[in-house]
UniProtKB/TrEMBL annotation:
<comment type="pathway">
    <text>Carbohydrate degradation; 2-deoxy-D-ribose 1-phosphate degradation; D-glyceraldehyde 3-phosphate and acetaldehyde from 2-deoxy-alpha-D-ribose 1-phosphate: step 2/2.</text>
</comment>
<dbReference type="GO" id="GO:0004139">
    <property type="term" value="F:deoxyribose-phosphate aldolase activity"/>
</dbReference>
<feature type="active site" description="Schiff-base intermediate with acetaldehyde">
    <location>
        <position position="153"/>
    </location>
</feature>
<keyword id="KW-0704">Schiff base</keyword>
<feature type="active site" description="Proton donor/acceptor">
    <location>
        <position position="90"/>
    </location>
</feature>
<comment type="similarity">
    <text>Belongs to the DeoC/FbaB aldolase family. DeoC type 1 subfamily.</text>
</comment>
<keyword id="KW-0456">Lyase</keyword>
<dbReference type="InterPro" id="IPR011343">
    <property type="entry name" value="DeoC"/>
</dbReference>
<feature type="active site" description="Proton donor/acceptor">
    <location>
        <position position="183"/>
    </location>
</feature>
<keyword id="KW-0963">Cytoplasm</keyword>
<protein>
    <recommendedName>
        <fullName>Deoxyribose-phosphate aldolase</fullName>
        <ecNumber>4.1.2.4</ecNumber>
    </recommendedName>
</protein>
<dbReference type="InterPro" id="IPR028581">
    <property type="entry name" value="DeoC_typeI"/>
</dbReference>
<dbReference type="InterPro" id="IPR002915">
    <property type="entry name" value="DeoC/FbaB/LacD_aldolase"/>
</dbReference>
<comment type="function">
    <text>Catalyzes a reversible aldol reaction between acetaldehyde and D-glyceraldehyde 3-phosphate to generate 2-deoxy-D-ribose 5-phosphate.</text>
</comment>
<dbReference type="Pfam" id="PF01791">
    <property type="entry name" value="DeoC"/>
</dbReference>
<dbReference type="InterPro" id="IPR013785">
    <property type="entry name" value="Aldolase_TIM"/>
</dbReference>
Amino acid sequence: MTPSAADLATFIDHTLLKPEATRADVERTIADAAELGTYSVCLSPSFLPVEVPAGLKVAVVCGFPSGKHHAEVKAAEAALSVAQGADEIDMVIDIGAAVEGRYEVVEAEIRAVRTAVPAPTVLKVIIESAALSDDAIVAVCEAAVAAGADFVKTSTGFHPAGGASVHAVRLMKQTVGDRAEVKASGGIRTRAAAEEMIAAGATRLGLSSSRDILADRAASGDY
């Protein structure tokens, strides 16, 4: 079945991660999210704390966008974000460690963040799937599950290799099964593409052009 716009909105983390974003941009993003009925807003940590309507979750990125931060720094950033009101943390792994096959490093940094922000904080792990081989995607997803992540997430949307793909979402879901959920993000510019990601196994979507996509208008750009 094709979801209604209202149903599709409940999958969305309405996202604002542009480096040049202002406080006024954040206020507009929160207002849009409330109007559209999205699940959450996803913001940069320096904007915290923010006021949001009841029922709207706040997600914040960590180690973004490169992932080239010490595990201790990622853990501290995540803990500060939660202390300032974040409900969910979207952390970027050390992608180079994954490319090299040093999955123990990836698992250790995810575990450090998980320890710093235990449940009920939701932890999503951004693996930058377009930059990884299928074998690496599987291994990193296994590491994320072993370290206690709630979600594996395709992309930052800032990597030149690209964003989410149906293939990556399907492979990630096949790997984690019922042990974790999958978030698709990066380059999703049409409603059809959003629905394809859900059909492939995504239960959350990272979108910055939520209004256009829900109205079935092609977005000019999406993180």
